[in-house]
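Consider the following assembly input.
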Amino acid sequence: MSALRQLLRDPVAALGLAIVLFAVLVAIFAPFLAPYPDDAFESHIMQRLRPPSAEFLFGTDNLGRDMFSRVILGTRSALFVAVSVVFAAIVIGVPVGLAAGWRDGWLSETLMRVTDIFLAVPQLILALALGQLLAPGIGAAMVALTLTYWPFFARTVFAETRRLRTSLFVDALAGIGAHPVRILLLHVLPNAAPAVLVRATIGMGFTILTAAILGFLGVGAAPPEPDWGLAVAEARQHLPEAWWFATFPGLAIMLLVLGFNLLGDGLRDAADPRLRRSRR
Amino acid sequence: MLLYILRRIALALPALFGLVVLTFILSRVVPGDPAATLAGDAATPAQIADIRARYGLDRPLLEQALVHVRQVVSGDLGNSLFSGRPVSLEIMQRLPATLELTFVALVFATILGVALGLVAALDHNGPIDHLVRIVSVGGLAIASFWLAIMLQLQFSMEWNILPLRGRIDVIYGMPHRVTGFLLIDTLLAGRPDMFLDALRHMVLPAITLALPGLATIARFTRSGVLEALQKDYVLYARAAGYGRFRLAAIYVLRNAITVTVTQIGLLFGALISGAVAIEAVFDWPGLGTYAVQAILSADYKALLAVTLVVGVVYAVVNVLVDVAQALIDPRVAQRAR
């Protein structure tokens, strides 16, 4: 609890948390908040490309759909993709990091070399290749993003496990005969949790951005899905007239990523006293 | 030092080899039969069998993998499924455009980022510091393709002061190719007018690409300088009467910059990724547009080759960065021993 209080004392982190909570609420209640929830799939050709007005706050898109509603509905898929990807990446990366960090040997070497291979290419490039090979679509994009993000968790947990395995409490546990799996899961993992949490928060922002790029390039969400990246891609043909069409989805991406980045920043400071000193 | 450089190169090789194997595996999980894909929709079973034999697709997988590795090492990345031309050739034609853009963006991001970070640290908790902090967090939150479009909207469409797309105006054509870097080739050709035009085309894509890097560099420089400022030698230099600026420029920055240099290496990956989307927006004829075109035409050969080439470039840059770091701070090489 004290960690949370300390986090909230940092105005920047508190702002990040507020943005993230706001986005989560918007995502949960999206169908009730959106003025035209049916505009996820319905089109109204007669009112296409209308500028922002009291009726359509963010204007309408090329098929006459309310952008305000679609930006709200898009919060859902953005958060859903990010949460799924980060969760799956943790499920893969954390055990790899624990196993590789515990003892030196062929298992550790193999696991970390495989991790290095995935880190040898920038994530987006690898995700593009994977997403395309798996047949483009939001599912493939999520698998691709997971396969490119788990190494970061493996690296983080590997470093933490390495650091902790020589500590006194681990020696003591081994001395009284605790099984390595027990030591790793019940004693090492909780100590590595802050680092994983920081990684996960920053990973959320990163995943939202990368997923948006994939959507923009046509390897992510497919029409008529209310996806932010896809909307910006669709808007390009209607510039410069329909500036609102491209502007608002991009602002939504920025706000949500900003929220996660600020929160991750604050968490990192709270988790690492050494960094806290340099910020002051 | 030479030993350190060789060690560092040796460390990069296994990952690259693994990447070659990974791309091979990926090319085999392509939905469907690669021979059938190559043969096209109208092929007869006999034609497919013929292609299978010709490309060695009927050999055992391990043998195919070995052949693949040998081909890649000798620079043969196969032929594009879209144009039929060698992928390595097409990539070499486009690589300079991406490298030039990335390099200009990186230089821009480094100069401005280090300056902002330094100024912010010297103005610790002051108004400039807060401003830099906002820029450094906000810069990482903006989707590059969106920023690119917004800049186009304002500077190219609305005000019409900067070009909308491409590397150089079509009326100029391309200068004689020496390095493939337009900013160099136009000068070598003795055409300052073309140089200026190429530079004008560079402005928007480079700014868009540089922003996330600028943010990261400013941030790490700031914290590095803040930490260095607390060291005893700074106290001593201060006592010896060094002025604030001289102190910062000579003593603090050099000690703080090693962290930043590491970040520049890591950033390169982000820059190449960013370049893909930004090139697509600005019609920049580089690897990014090539990758996007490969996606649209389901050309997995080209896409995997791009992945490989980017992996190699990435590895080279990271080795260079480690060497640069060891040159700035000799303790790095000693520690690695």
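Chain B has a mean pLDDT of 83. Ask yourself how this observation constrains the way the partners meet.
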